Amino acid sequence: MSPFDDPRLTAMGLLAEVMAGISEKMSPALAGAGLSDVEFETLIRLARSPAHGLRMSDLAAQTSLSTSGITRVVDRLERENLVARRACPSDRRASYAVLTDEGRQRLLGVLPQHLDDIEAWFTSLLTPEQLADFLSTLRLIRDVVRPCATAGVAESAKVE
After folding, report:
1. What distance separates the 2 farthest-apart alpha carbons in the chain?
2. What is the pLDDT of residues 48-80, one digit of tens each?
3. Which residue intervals define the domain HTH marR-type in the entry (predicted)?
4. Which residues, including other chains, have CB under 8 Å from residue 134's CB and lie 6 or more apart?
């Protein structure tokens, strides 16, 4: 067997192709809502967090952006009144990014199409059992390669 036929290379290649393909299919709906992929990811992570907020450092860890990268994204979202910054009650050096009502409305506007896209290009292709197994497998891998992906979820419940 050629080293280029290694199934590990195939697994990574397929994963990259699937993610790129799904992202390409979903981008038009996000763009129609005036959001980039990273802006949508930031807003949806805030929406799905307790109290709809995360420490900036935890948000950076969850999105795999640098601290300065997430600051630029939050700056843009703040200018559009989709996100607000709140001081951390226990650490003056830290701040939280919190989803605003306007940000929630923007998400609610794009969410039906986004969910339709997920259904059309991803979840409908799997049986319920396959989807459950796939999600379990993804969480297993995610927890090893990106243990910070759920950073700050417990603490974010404290945001006012």
Report:
1. 59
2. 998 999 999 899 988 878 889 999 999 999 999
3. 5-143
4. 126
Please choose, from the candidates 32, 33, 58, 26, the residue with its C-alpha nearest in 3D space to the C-alpha of residue 45: 58
Helix pair 7-32, 101-121: axis angle to 10 deg: 130
Residue 72 counted as domain residue: yes
pLDDT at 54: 93
Cα 91 from Cα 158, distance rounded (Å)? 12
For 5, phi then psi, to 5°, come to: -95, 10
* Domain with 154 in it: 18-158
The tens digit of pLDDT for each residue in 2-16 reads 999 999 999 999 999
Domain total of the chain: 1
- A 10 A CB-CB count for 91 gives 9
CATH number at residue 94: 1.10.10.10
How many Cα atoms occupy the beta-carbon half-sphere of 57 within 13 Å? 8
Task: List 55's β-bridge partners, or say none.
Answer: 96
Q: Which is nearest to 52 in space by CA: 76, 23, 72, 77? A: 77
In a domain, 127, yes or no: yes
Structure tokens at 158: 């404290």
